[in-house]
Every structure is written in C-alpha cells, then in structure tokens.
Design goal:
UDP-n-acetylglucosamine1-carboxyvinyl-transferase, Chain; about 425 residues; 23 strands; 12 helices
C-alpha cells in the first residue's frame, strides 16, 4: 500500500489512543501463567500482539477472543509434556524474546524463529542468562532461530541489558513459575529501563513478589504465583506520539483520550520534550491535549529510556528554529530496522541536514522537501515519516501497511481527518 500525505494547516483534532502494545504482550503472557481464568479488556489487536496470542495457543494455552476481549485460561505455569513445536514470530521481537523464558516452562522442545530481519537481531545475552538457571538453549551466532529445552530451575544468573531490556523482562516474567527463587544481576544499567517498569507493574498487578534494586539487581519469589484477574490495557504513549506530532508540525491542537498521567510508559517523556520545544501540554482526566501556537525550539535530549519515540522527535525536529540532538540511541540499530541509519537517510533525502554518531543524531532546521519513502518494513519509521509530509503534502510512503504491527488503524484515522490519501 502507498499513502500520500496531504498539505494541512492548523488542526483541532481528537483521537482515541490505541491500546498499549507493551502492556498487551505482557498481560497475555502473565495471564497464561496465572492460576485461574483472566479477562483482558481493551487489548491491542495488532499484528505483533496477535502473533504472541497465536504462539501461546501453540504452546498449550487456551485463549478465546470475544467482544474485543481476550479470555485466557491460566495454566498456573504447569504444562503437560508434548511433542516439539516450531513457532514463527515473523518480526515480533518482543514476543520472541518474552516467550524464550516462557518456553522453558512448557516441558517440550520449542524452536522460536522469525523473518530474515528477526534472524539478524541479537538474543545471545538472554540465552546465556537462562542457561545459568536450568535452560538448555542454543542460538547459532547469537540470533534466532532459538532452540529451547531444559527447565527453569531458578537460582542466580547474570546478563547484559545493553542491547535490550526485553532480555530482563523475559526472565522476570517467567520467574514466579521457577522451581526456586530467581536472582538476576546486571553488570550495568540497562537500556530502555522504562519497559522493565512496565514488566514489574504487570507482574505485581497479577500477584508476583518481585524486588528491584536500582535496575541492577532483581529478585523474584517463586512462591508468589500469579493470580487470575480482569485487567484493562491502558492507552499507548508511543503510538499516540504520532498524533501529538500533528499539532507540533501543523500548529493547533490534538487531544488524545485514554492516556494516564501516572503511566509507567517511558515514552510519556515525549510530551516533556514537546513542552521543552515550545508546545503546551495539558493533562486532564484520562486524556492529554497538545497545542502549538508559536515557534518551536530545538532540544538536546537523552532518549535512552524512551526509544520508541526517537523517530517521532526526528520527524518534528526540522520544524524547530534551532538544531536538535538526540542521544542514548546506540541500541536502536537492533530494532525492526537500523532506525537511526534509516531515519537519517530519509531526512537527508528530504534535504534536511543530519549528522549521526554511534549514539547520537543531530537534525538541523529546514522545510522537508518532497520524498518517496521506503520505511524498510519499520512501522515507526512509516508513521514518523508521515508527520513530515503535512506541510508540503508531497510525501509518499511505500509499504505503508507495515503499521499493522502496532497501529493498524493509523492511516484510516488520518484519512478520515483529511491528512492523507491511500493510493493503492
């Protein structure tokens, strides 16, 4: 599918936030390990979360979908022995990593794999960490396919969190079902620590006893089993960033319903960045409004804890009066694409001066020119690129259907409001 952005003036728009992808993944997996039946209300129906749901079914969890809710029959972490199974998670990195530790509980050999890009994304630190506490896991060259066998005995383990916080979340989520308590130690502060906060919040919401000492030492009580419950998934700040960016670029206001000021989501920081750049941010009960009625100023900001909105900041940076520098982003080369490399290429193709180092990107002010953009299969690149086209109206995004990974209705919502046109 190809989409063309349309030239747009100041806006006054209202949206409903899509459900959080991070919370939906974790809720599905944790509810599957709980004792009793859980109901997830307002979950995200997107490519990634549905791949995780289908994978859990193949691993022996009974899940039904009715009235836009997920009904999950918890296993209590106990699975009957069955034949080996191979599961393809496409480019669902969150699902593959979180299910690696989960698979140790299923008492069967499990192979987890994905598409070509997924087979380039590292998983070695997680494999090493799990093998110290009962796993017999292998991944040639430290990337998928991952061959999982063994068990989750528990005990003490270490791993590096410098590549992905999902390695840590994978071990933590499975640990209440381990044979003994689990202690996890990190040699350095992890990247994307806010996603660990989401994991801890979800674990505690379902009854687990987990302790966190400055993000370098975690302990999980294996006697504190998960309990079933009804759980409502909160709105997603990462996906909402593209909607707020419409106001930042065009001027005017955008209100997004279904967002909590008290959320653990690190990408909530995007709103702080908008304020620093000159936008007005208003928090109301269960909604946020962003307004821009004056010039914007560039910022220097460390986004190591809010990686999924880095591309959105890249997209609004050219419209500021001064340059913007984003740091703490070295690990983004391991995402669905090499995100900084791809964004820099897109910005430069639109005649925006951009400099990149191993851990930073600097973007000069300028008016993005016409462009025919290939997001290289990355949903966040596609949505961020759209933001830059609302002033010129001359940006075409190819393979635009990649947004189904996290925000399937993105183009529909924009088209309904006269912001884009689907060409094919």
């Amino acid at each position: 599918m190809r989409v063309r952005t349309l030239k747009t003036g100041p806006v006054d728009l209202i949206f409903d936030a899509p459900a959080s992808k991070s919370y939906t993944h974790r809720a599905l997996i944790i509810a599957s390990l709980a004792t009793g039946d859980s109901v997830l209300t307002r979950p995200l129906f997107a490519e990634d979360t549905l791949l995780t749901l289908k994978s859990l079914r193949r691993l022996g969890v009974r899940i039904s979908v009715k009235n836009e809710k997920f009904f999950i029959e918890g296993t209590g972490g106990i699975f009957p022995r069955k034949r080996p199974v191979k599961i393809n998670l496409d480019n669902n990195g969150t699902g593959l990593r979180l299910l690696t530790a989960f698979s140790l509980l299923t008492k069967r050999p499990v192979t987890l794999t994905g598409n070509e890009r997924m087979q380039e994304r590292p998983i070695g630190p997680l494999v090493s960490g799990l093998n110290k506490i009962g796993g017999n896991i292998s991944a040639q060259n430290g990337t998928p396919p991952v061959h999982v066998s063994g068990k989750l005995s528990g005990g003490f383990t270490t791993l590096s969190g410098s590549v992905s916080s999902q390695f840590i979340s994978s071990i933590l989520i499975a640990s209440p079902c381990a044979e003994t308590d689990v202690e996890l130690e990190l040699p350095e502060l992890p990247v994307s620590a806010s996603y660990i906060d989401i994991t801890l919040d979800m674990m505690r919401s379902f009854g687990a006893n987990v302790k966190n000492d400055s993000y370098t030492h975690f302990s999980v009580d294996s006697r504190s089993k998960y309990s079933c419950r009804e759980y409502q998934i909160e709105g997603d700040f990462s996906s909402s960033s593209y909607l707020f960016a419409i106001a930042a670029v065009n001027g005017g206001s955008v209100t997004v319903n279904g967002l909590s000021k008290d959320s653990f989501q690190g990408d909530k920081k995007f709103l702080d960045i908008l304020e620093k750049m000159g936008c007005k941010v208003e928090y109301h009960e269960n909604k946020v409004r962003v307004t821009r009625d004056g010039p914007m100023t560039g910022v220097s900001v460390d986004m190591s804890k809010s990686p999924d909105t880095v591309q959105t900041v890249c997209a609004i940076a050219p419209f500021a009066d001064t340059e913007t520098t984003i740091s703490g982003i070295h690990h983004l080369k391991y995402k669905e694409s090499d995100r900084i490399k791809v964004m820099a290429k897109i910005l430069q193709s639109m005649e925006i001066e951009t400099r990149v180092t191993a851990d930073t990107i600097t973007i000069k002010p300028g008016k993005p020119g016409p462009a025919d953009i290939d997001p290289e299969g990355d949903h966040r690149t596609a949505m961020s690129s759209a933001v830059m086209g609302f002033i010129s109206g001359e940006v075409v995004i190819r393979s635009a259907e990649c947004v189904k990974k996290s925000f399937p209705d993105f183009w529909v919502l924009l088209e309904e409001r006269g912001l884009c046109q689907r060409l094919s």
